Amino acid sequence: MEKSLHTPKALPVISLTVASALFLTGCFAPGAPDGSAPGDKRIRVAMMQPPRSGLSPLSDDAFKLSRWSTAETLVTLDANGDPKPALAEKWRKTGEKSWAFTVRDGVTFHDGTELTAEDVVRSLTKASRAAPKPRILDGVDLTVTSRGDTVTVTTAVADPLVPQRLSSPQLSILAAKAYRGRTVNPVGAGTGAFVLKKVNGTSSAALDRNENYWGGRARAAGIDVRFVPDGTARAAALRSGEADIVESVPVSQASLLDEDRITEVPMPRTNTLYLNTRRGVFTDPSLRAAARTALDPKSLVDGVYEGRADVAEGLLGPAVPWAKERAGRTGAAKAADPKGKAVVIGTFTDRAELPEVAAALQQQLQKAGFTVKLEIREYANIESDALAGKFDAFILSRATVLDSGDPAAYMYSDFASDGSFNVSQLRDKKVDEALKKATATASGPARRKAVLAAETAILNTDAAIPMLHERVVQGDAANVVDSAKDPRERLLVTVDTYVK
């Protein structure tokens, strides 16, 4: 359930019971053993968002296929966002614009056909020619060819993040049968630990264990998925025992669950106040500094987020492990007296907490001497005005690590002079130089160092004031073992997950 400024934090228990009955009665088959081994049961999963594009891997539905371990990519990412082998055993850079990937031997698709380099070419070429393209390929022009067991990926311009890009679930490798119609159909066409057997529109899906999985036999017999958009019903399903794993438990419902049944996973998502540096009050760096010093992020974490978030120390949070190596702000302006200057702060209703954040910021800034007006609409009706610089400030919940697992793309989009999402209207030479260096540096420690230097340059401008880093709350029944707790939300049920 979404919260507004006047919505209570929790519903009575009777309301949860009713919601559970309405949404989930009869939704899941019993998680009974299949008789093959002790604890060898099916896992019942309640997911937040139903499929939007028929589970096409070329859409955001790809992340469901990844979370169910049914579709796989050439590369995966480690905790630092560096690439590691998956369907590709190894790779190397063969030229300024080309990379060679060796396809793993001994992998079969769920339809029994063998994975070949030609299959990889087909899947990646279909993605590169899709309209619209998967967002990981936005602005990227690539061609894919094969020879023997080697796939060569060539880009129009040098791109040090090609391996990371190929980790995106939207670039999953599927069997030829998936591409026979006008849309991409992933049913029975993946390579992962579980075979997608059936999809019932936007209500449910069923997967069985892949007995021939190249990565070893899964511990669970299968997965039964139910799509339950109502957060109250998802939380109630965990309490009532109707679901084994529940994703995205709302903050307002987490306190109603046993603490040992929930896990808070830091997300690479930062709640940030963007200040307009091109027009209005915040063209003055000293007034941007005044806004920064007026804010009390801890009160937002404790109040709006009920303690289930982390106070921001920078743009990047605890979901990015190496962010703690940052230097932090090194040269921001000193704060001046606002003297009652009027500002308009915009935000949107689509993320339930943001209107509450806006109301709290209004009070904090007015206490510091600003006069503050709020403008709150649905995101679709406010985005164009925000990008056009029509607000003095704008509150965003912003993903800081996009599909490549690398923060440089987000920083460039939001803070480069020619960035496509430059809500702050920032034009700063030092920031541009730092971002250019970060985006051109090869992956690894040197790139991470360059990204943190760019973060410092951005923080020094006070064009954006990071307030808090969000968490996703996942619920697991007491008998669930080894469900994935993934900040990037790419994994949930893996080969190691089972129900006792």
TrEMBL record:
InterPro entries: Peptide/Ni-bd (IPR030678), SBP_5 (IPR039424), SBP_5_dom (IPR000914)
Residues making up the signal peptide according to the UniProt record: 1-31
Alphabetized SUPFAM superfamilies for the sequence: Periplasmic binding protein-like II
Superkingdom of origin: Bacteria
Record flagged with keyword Signal: yes
The Solute-binding protein family domain, residue ranges: 83-420
Sorted UniProt keywords: Signal
The name this protein goes by in its record: ABC transporter substrate-binding protein
Organism lineage: Bacteria, Bacillati, Actinomycetota, Actinomycetes, Kitasatosporales
